[in-house]
Amino acid sequence: MASSLDTFRNTLKDIRQSLRDRFVAGEPANILVRTHSDRIDALLRQVWRQIRHGFSSSEPTRLALIAVGGYGRGELHPGSDIDLLLLGERTDESVRQGIGEFIAMLWDIGLEVGHSVRTLRECETEARADITIATNLMEARLIEGSEVLFDALRECARPDNIWPGRAFFEAKWSEQQARHHKFHDTTNNLEPNVKEGPGGLRDIQMIGWVAKRHFGADTLQDLVEHDFLTESEYQSLIKGQDFLWDVRFALHALAGRREDRLLFDYQRILAEKFGYRDDGRHLAVEHFMKQYYCTIGELSRLNEMLLELFQEAILYPDSAEAIPLGRRFQARNGFLEVVNENIFKHYPFALLELFLILQQHPTLSGVRATTIRLIRDHRYLINDTFRSDIRVRSLFIEILRQPHGITGALRRMHRYGILGAYLPLFEAIIGQMQYDLFHVYTVDEHTLFVIGNLRTFAAIHRQKNEQNEKFALCAKVFAEIPKQELLYIAGLFHDIAKGRGGDHSRLGAADAQEFCLQHDFSRYDAMLVAWLVENHLLLSMTSQRKDIYDPDVINHFAAEVGDRTHLDYLYLLTVADIRGTNPELWNDWKHILLRDLYEATLLALRRGPENSVQQTDRIAETKEEALQILRQEGILKDEGRKDRIEALWQSAGADYFLRYRPNEIAWHTDAITDSQNRTAPIVLVREGRAGLDIFVYMRDRDRLFQTSTTLIDQLNLSIQDARIVTADNGMTFNSYVVLAVSGHTVVHDSTRYDEREIRETLIRQLRHPDEAISPVSRLPRRQLRHFTTDTTILFHDNDANHRTIMEVSTGDRPGLLSQIAATLTRCEIRLHKARIATFGERAEDIFFITDKDNRPLAEPIRECLRMKIIEELA
C-alpha cells in the first residue's frame, strides 16, 4: 500500500507540474482544465480499483464513482475541489468503511475532495429539498462503477421527476439575484470574484443550467440551434469564458490553492503574465483590469438577455395580447417591445425613445429579450448624424427631466451599449479603473453611482423622510435647485476626462459646456455645469484641508463660489461624489464638515462681502451663546463659578473662541470650573456630532500631543481632527474627534468601546506624559502592502493667523500620526490644529504649526522638519 501511495503521489505531482509548464508556455486554460479533469479521472480509477478489491461484504454491492459540480462538467482548475458522489445500492457498514479508506487515500495523495455517500433514494430526497444538490446531479458524470446505478440516477434527476423547468428557473434566478447582491450588484468591484461576482463564470454556468434543464441543451452551442443565441453572441460568450478561465487558472497557480478573488496581491503579476505594459497614461495593471471589466460587462449583458429570453419561454409560454404604447412600442406580459423588427432601422431615434417610454410606464418590468437583441444589433446607427438629430437630443434631455426612473434609464442605457455610443467620451471611461484603494469602482460605474446618489436626495424629499438625518439637508437643497437636469449632466461629466492626461476637471468642464450648448441649454446653464465640473473637488478639498471655522477661510470660499445657486449645486454634487467613490468613505465626520462649510458659506453669502463676519464679531457671538447655555444649566448662579469662568475665558485667548463651538465651550467650562483637583488632567469623553469627542485640559508639556495620539491609536480609534490651544496661564485645551479604525462612528462599529475606559486610560497615562509609551503595533491592512506611496511634505504661510501650514502626504499605516507627533516634539514644533484625511492607501494630513515661540517656521526649520519626518516615516 505504501508503494502504491508513493506512486499515486508522484503521478499527481507530475500532473500538476505538467499543467503549470504548459500554462506558462502559453497553452490556454480551456484546454488545460479539460486535460486536468481527464488525468484526475484516470488517477481516481486506479485508486478506486485498488480499494474496491478490498471491500468486505457478505454479498456484492453495486457502487458508482461519480463526478459532480464543475468536475462533473469536466472543468477542473488547479485549485478546484474534486466533488464526488459515491452512489450505492445500499450503504451498510462495510461499504462505508471501504469508501472511507478510498477518501482517506485521496487526501493522503494530496487531493482536496468534497464528497457525499448516498443511495438513489437519498439522492432524490436531498435533491428535492435543495436546488444546489439538484444542479450538481444534472452535471453528474460517471468515472467508474455501475452504469445501471448511474443511469437510474439520471432518471431520478429528470425535470419530470424533480424541479420542473419553471420551478428550476425561478429558484436559480432568485439564487443569482442574491449572489449578485453580495457584490453590491456591480461587475466593477475593486477586487472582483472571477467565479461568483456579477458577469463571472457562475453567470455563464447559470445559462447552461437553465438551457440543459428546460431545453435539453447539453452545450451552449445548442442554444444557437434553439434560436436563443446568435452565432456572434455565442462567440462572445465563449471568448469571455475563455478569458475568465485563463484568469482563474492563473490565480490558482499563483496562490497554490483555490483563489477566485482577483486580489491586489495578484493583479500586477497577472497583468505582466498576460502581456500588458505601462504606457504614458495607464499602468499595465489598469489595462489588464479594463479588459477584465469590459469582458464581465459584456458577459453580464448576455446573461441578462438570455435570462429574459428564458423567462419569456418558460414563464410566459403563451404570448399575451399586446398593449399599444404609441406608434413604435407595445407591452406584452409586462415587458416593452417594438411593434416590429424594423422599427430601429426606420426610426433610429427610437433607440432613445424606448428608455423614455420605460420611465413613463413604471409598471413595466423591463424590455423583452428580442427587443434587447434588436437594440444591440442596431447600435451601429448611433453616429454623428444620429447625435445631431434634434429629436435624439431632445429625447436624451427629456430622459434626464423625468420625475422617476432616471438612474434606472441610464443604467439600462449603459448595459445595452447605448450610453457609450451616444456619448463617445463616456465610452472611453468604461471599465477604466484607478489602481488605488480610494476609488473602489471603475470610472463609469462611479459616475452612475453619483447620479443614483443624487436621485436618492430627490426620493428622501419626496417621501418626506425626516429620519434620514445625514441627507435631510441634501434633500431640502435638492428640492430648491431650479434645474435638476443640470446637476445630472454635471454628474455625468465630472470624471469623464479621467485617463486622458492633464487636469481632468478642466478638460471635463470644456466637454460639459460643449454638450450643454449642443443640447440647446442657455449659455448661463452651460457655464454653470462647466463650473461645477471644473470645481467638483473644491468643497471637499476646502473642508478637508482648511480651517473652516476661521471666518477668513469662509469669506474667501464664499467669494470663490459667488452665489447660493453655485453653492447649492456644488454641495449636492460633492456629497454624491464622495458617497459614490467608496462606500466606506462617507461617514458622520465628512457629513458634518461639509454641512458646516455649506451653512457657514450660505450665511456669508447672505451677509455679502461688505458685511462679512470678522473675528471680533465671531468671538463675541460665541461667548454670548456659550454663556446662554451655562445660564440655562444653572451654572452661573454660583458667584464663585462665575469668577472662575471669567478667569478661565480671560486666559483662554481669542483662538479658543474661534475654534470651538458654543456648546463645546460650555461643556469644557462646566468641567474645568467644577474640578476640585487643579493639578490632575481633566479628560472628557462624549458622543459628538461627528464621532467621539475627546477633550483634555492640563498643563502644557512637550510630549503631550505625542502621548495622546499614541494612546488613542492604541485604543483602536482613528483621529479625524485635532485642535490644540495653549492658554496664557500655561494650560492647554486639546480636543480630538475620533472614529473607530474601521471609519465608522464608535456607536455603530462592531467593536465595543467604553467611554469610561477611554477616559480612565488617558487620565492614567497623561499624569506622566514624559514616561516612555509603547509604539502602536497594529498590523496594516493586507492591501496596503501592494502600494508604495512616496512621502511629500509641503509648507504654506498662513499669514492671517501667523502660522505655518504643513501638508504631509504619505502611505497610510497604523501609528502614523503618533510618528509625526514624535518628530514635532523632537524639533520643538508647536501644533495648533491638525486635520487628518485618508484616501485609500494614501494619508494626507494637514498641520497648523509654529515654532516654540509661536512664530511661523523659518525656512531652515522647515527644511530640517521635512527631512526629520521623511526619515521617521521611511
Automatic annotation (TrEMBL):
Keyword list, A-Z: Hydrolase, Magnesium, Multifunctional enzyme, Nucleotidyltransferase, Repeat, Transferase
Known EC number: 2.7.7.59, 3.1.4.-
GO biological process: regulation of nitrogen utilization
Top-level taxon: Bacteria
Catalysed reaction equations from the record: guanosine 3',5'-bis(diphosphate) + H2O = GDP + diphosphate + H(+); [protein-PII]-uridylyl-L-tyrosine + H2O = [protein-PII]-L-tyrosine + UMP + H(+); [protein-PII]-L-tyrosine + UTP = [protein-PII]-uridylyl-L-tyrosine + diphosphate
Regulation: Uridylyltransferase (UTase) activity is inhibited by glutamine, while glutamine activates uridylyl-removing (UR) activity.
Keyword field contains Magnesium: yes
Segments forming domain ACT: 693-781, 805-874
Any one GO MF annotation of this record: guanosine-3',5'-bis(diphosphate) 3'-diphosphatase activity
All residue ranges annotated as the HD domain in the record: 443-570
Family indicated by similarity: Belongs to the GlnD family.
Function noted in UniProt: Modifies, by uridylylation and deuridylylation, the PII regulatory proteins (GlnB and homologs), in response to the nitrogen status of the cell that GlnD senses through the glutamine level. Under low glutamine levels, catalyzes the conversion of the PII proteins and UTP to PII-UMP and PPi, while under higher glutamine levels, GlnD hydrolyzes PII-UMP to PII and UMP (deuridylylation). Thus, controls uridylylation state and activity of the PII proteins, and plays an important role in the regulation of nitrogen metabolism.
Free-text note on domains in this protein's UniProt record: Has four distinct domains: an N-terminal nucleotidyltransferase (NT) domain responsible for UTase activity, a central HD domain that encodes UR activity, and two C-terminal ACT domains that seem to have a role in glutamine sensing.
Cross-referenced HAMAP family: PII_uridylyl_transf
Protein name, UniProt field: Bifunctional uridylyltransferase/uridylyl-removing enzyme
Originating organism: Candidatus Kentrum sp. MB
Phylogenetic classification of the source organism: Bacteria, Pseudomonadati, Pseudomonadota, Gammaproteobacteria, Candidatus Kentrum
Gene label: glnD
